[in-house]
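Fresh eyes needed here. Have a critical look at this protein's tokenised backbone.
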Amino acid sequence: MESSNTQRRITKRSSYAYVTGHFADKVFLSRYLSELQQKVARLERAQARALVEQSLRHAAGDDDAVACREGNDSLAEVTSGYAHLVKKDDPNNPSRFDERRRSSYHTPDGTSGHSPPGDGDGPDLTNPLTATPSRFCMSASNGQPYFLGSSSNWSFSRQVLSVTYEHVCQSPLPTNSLLFDGFAYDLGWDGSRTTQTLDNRLIPSHDYAIFLINAVKFHCGQMFHLFEEDEFMLNMQTFYSKSSTDRAEENSLWYIHFLVILAFGKSLIQRKTRGNKRPAGADFFVRALQLLPDVTALCKEPIMSTEILCSMAWYYQALDFRHAAHNFIGQAKSVAMNHGMHTDMPIMDLGPGLVQRCRKIWWTVYVLDRQMTSLMGLPQSTLDEGVFCQLPSYPGSVHRTTALSMQIKFARIIAEISSTVYGANGRLNKKFVLSTKAVLQSIVAVADELRTSFPLFADERFDGISRLSAHLHLLYYQCIILATRPLLLCCLIKRFNSPLEADSLMASPKVRNPLQMCAESGIQILNILDRLRAQGLLETFLPLDLDSLFVSMVALLVARGVDSRLIESQIPWVDKSHAIIEEMVASGNLIAEFRKNEMQKLEEMLLEFDATRPRPLSDLTTTATIIAQQQQQQQQPVPSSDWQQQPDTCSTAALQPAPLPAETRSPLSQETTLPVYRELSKDSSSQAEDLTTQQIIDVVNSMEWEDNEWMSFTMVQDEA
């Protein structure tokens, strides 16, 4: 420990200090030791590459072993199992290699894959989102503390807002107008279960019920299994054949399921009136909750019960009741696993209809559980080693099976990110750079399949894009942002506390390229959402598009705050993001209204910081232009809130930037620079040429954790 601290002080000191007199020998010794460390690091990398090449040659010779891996035929996937084998026992003599242990899991088709490698000891580079002790945000309305989960989008935005506000305004972030779990909507229910019956007049007519069900099928059916259509529709025919009195007294499990689907359908098609916090379809949903029996009764009909719990979880998620959604999807997973749906159920014994239905249910629960757990920022609880369920078959639609396979792969990448970049490797071993590299390699492994099987423009004769393809591409870019945004937050903190050192870091491709890839993924998300908006396919109730937009906007605003040169064009992506979120707000989405206000405040604060920080004279004109353009875009006033009524400490006009000589800011090196995204078009997007697999591999290869640039983040956790 003492040796590590000494190394840290030497590295930090050598970046800033110039010592004369009797300290000159110490400076010379520090530089000499630094040079030795770099030489040792180069030798280690050379040995590691040699070991990788040897392993690759061995793997290439074993055709059967390579063929049995689903989706692992790329060099990057094979390499990920052998790269980064360096482990340091002594910081002054790092020379021992330790082959990583790799835990296997079972893929949907029964083949085996591998989890990412572990990490040894390394440089003191820590993910600020996994800091110890854990962090909480206090709600101003009820005083309840809310846990800031590591991988949560909500938590990330809170930490970015908090860090930025405290730096710009020199005071803690007020929480009066911030969005907390379950605050946007009000179901009008206190949670008590009563015997009150649903007003028979609220039950829709038979044809209107079919219309609502078809809306759910269109918006959800391609991505998730919420009900078995044949059985569901048969039960509905029976229900409507009853008298009105009998219908009012119905309380079967199917009826509960029916009410949830009606609630979904009504929320999907009916725009809500501004000022009304009760979502459309709330009457149906609340009645379903009141009728939901105890778990002992649910376990007697596990198949339909799992579908009901899964549907309720998804509806809660759409209302931003994230805690309730995570609880319900956990119950659904428990019921499904207790019934053996995660296993390879025997068709000969149980019948093809039952087995196929259980497979659809399991993989829907699996994907939603992975996504909701990540959105909560919690550890993943389901291990793939025990999952043997095969993919379901869709007669006449092989495309749907392939789409489900892609969803599962992205769900596993999300779990890998949660357990490595945001897990123990990010917090304890302090080498989340290695974890980030491994995750990016996993993303590379599915990138080519995504572009081949689900191009955004499948038919060149038409300008539209498929809703399903768009969803998968949005997942793809969200995974890249999720894996790289901790580094983005590190750089923002460094920009606030050590601006000159941040400039030096941004001149290094090893630091800049991952950040630029994160920002460009955000721009691509906006391009896809903008095209969906133009086609009228933007989801304004389901959280899919709003989550993507929120992830993109936060990443882009922070990237511009870190270094505006990460994003070549300033205004187009800002205009697109504003247009998209305005449409969601206009549709009555109260969550989008909160997001809009939060992003406006973050944008204002970061522009203010950029306008007032010391900078080269050559950059002042650019910043002034950006601010002027932003002011012109604000056609309506920002809703008032406590954080917008602070004194002039947060006024841009009250401060003037202090220019520095141009040479104090390092220019962006053009070495291995990623190209900035072009506008979304059929020619580029159909082949995803904007961010090729090779470019991601180049970024991965440039992230050498032994290099001195990463050591600049040594104290970033203490600075946060």
